[in-house]
Design brief:
This protein is mostly helical. It has one domain. It is built from 6 helices and no strands. The longest helix has 16 residues.
Length: 92
């Protein structure tokens, strides 16, 4: 086997965290969206990252534990759609 499967899940997360801290955007998005790290999601959202706004927003809207979280998710999707992101527009 090649790739991250060879080094184990724990080590893979550590590699993603190091790469994300080093500015690698794909690692930041992986941690924000796949691993659901709110700090990485909030960081990318603060930078105006439309894919993160859309897909993290959809996660909040669908799975948010509170109405406030679900509303926050909806606002993120609407914001990305207003900026012209087609995936967000299609979710609305």
């Amino acid at each position: 086997m090649d790739g991250l499967d060879d080094i184990g899940e724990h080590n893979a997360i550590n590699l993603y965290q190091r790469a994300a801290a080093g500015g690698f955007e794909r690692a930041q998005r992986h941690l924000a969206l796949i691993s659901r790290h709110p700090s990485w999601a909030n960081y990318l959202i603060s930078k105006g990252d439309l894919p993160t706004m859309t897909f993290y927003g959809a996660t909040l809207r669908t799975y948010g534990a509170t109405e406030e979280a679900r509303n926050e998710g909806q606002l993120l999707i609407e914001s990305a759609a207003a900026r012209g992101y087609p995936e967000a527009q299609s979710l609305l």
